């Protein structure tokens, strides 16, 4: 297993296929696995803020002299990235503004080049191979197959001069593998930085009651224990946001990963009532009205996601406000669907630099998040960070430091005490 440490082994997990389990005891916060990316790609939106090769965040990055689009820490990073960047460098110059492959197409192009460079090499018996990752090609519906066909067309359009493509069916299978097994690399506030493939990490199965958490150091994935583990315990992470009720979680799992979770929480649904909090009134709200509002909420969330691509920030904020007003007639502010829209409204306000409104929305999230998420949740540390940094910006130093310290306590376990993000946070808290 590439990048492994002592105390882990692959095994056949009952009802789940392959999995990873520990062969020795691990305490909360201990590192289970550190794994370099097999292949990774920085999202276009973050170019100029992060190094294209190592994903280091810096304000002093050097620009590629040819395409003027990619940025690097130094000549060493630029040279190391050239075998991959050359796939895009000349194409970006040739196509100009028309250069627009999807992120998954960009990643697949890099995987194809990496696989070709490794052809003939003797793979380690311990190393999980990209080809071994589960595909689920046969489970794809027409919509997903059409998306893959579109991605393949982009691959041929933008990369045909640099890549010898396998046959169409093999490409479809590879896109399906990446869609099911790829990881979104996120920063400390859970903002999207890029996408990567980690064949070894793809062995780790999902649970809505995870005992481990995945974070990123540059382009490397790190998995740490968030519960004490004994020899023989299977390693579980969460593939999804766990705030939502059981049906929503499993709909997402079936849609993206083609399975239904059967963990203890999914069977007991013990938290669903709290997550779907309904307003208390002298005349109780009818169950049918609650069900109708839940359907409206799911539809509103889906439509908001779609509208991000073509609506203005002001229009998006109006959508949030209208949804919150309608849902608020039935749901408490702590209802997860209300929280979802409050979070989106906060994000739009941040984008618009309306900091007072962003703080107003953020303050509505703190208490419900602390109840609905586990104490070591990255979603919880993320909201502490966002609101804490907002307070610091608005010269509310004491309140800001208080929230940033709460974020640090979570991140020291989830990211490890030596992570660069923590060093940056300590600097922020020291500023006056």
Automatic annotation (TrEMBL):
Catalytic reactions on record = L-lysyl(4)-[histone H3] + 3 S-adenosyl-L-methionine = N(6),N(6),N(6)-trimethyl-L-lysyl(4)-[histone H3] + 3 S-adenosyl-L-homocysteine + 3 H(+)
Biological process annotations from GO: methylation
Would the keyword Cell inner membrane be found if you checked this record's keyword annotation?
no
* MF terms (GO), sorted A to Z: histone H3K4 trimethyltransferase activity; zinc ion binding
Record domain MYND-type: where = 51-89
Enumerate the Pfam families for this protein.
SET, zf-MYND
Q: Which residues form the SET domain?
A: 6-240
- Keywords in alphabetical order: Metal-binding, Methyltransferase, S-adenosyl-L-methionine, Transferase, Zinc, Zinc-finger
Domain of life of the native organism:
Eukaryota
Q: Does the keyword tRNA-binding apply?
A: no
Record EC number: 2.1.1.354
Can you name a GO cellular component term?
Answer: nucleus
Name this protein carries in UniProt: [histone H3]-lysine(4) N-trimethyltransferase
The scientific name of the source species is Mugilogobius chulae (yellowstripe goby)
